[in-house]
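Work Package 3 (structural annotation) set out to generate three-dimensional models for the target panel prioritized at the project kickoff. During this period the team completed the workflow that converts sequence records into discrete structure tokens, so that structures can be stored uniformly alongside our sequence database. As a representative example, we reproduce one entry of 107 residues exactly as it appears in the project archive.
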Amino acid sequence: HSPALSIISFTFSAWIFVMFNDSASTFPDMTLVSHCTQTVSAWCLHIILRRACLHLGWWNDGIVGNTALVGYRWYHVAFVFDLMARQQRVYLNGVRDGARPSWWYYM
């Protein structure tokens, strides 16, 4: 558990190469980062690809990007939690792909 993550905003960014040919409806979840600070599942952060889209969230509080990724390509992805604004944002290749208010905060 990193105490700093519970009191500040954070950004996770990475270059990813997606290797799949499935359609978005059959695309399995692919974990990029997950972090649990407690045994309560609602406090588990997950940064994943879900149905080929970017996903940042906690158990019942998450944002899903609008763009389905295409297989066998490089992407730059970024996932942002803005604590002061209580907002979650996802970026695909430098362009915001989704944003929403967050009712939860990272514990």
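The longest strand covers residues 73-82.
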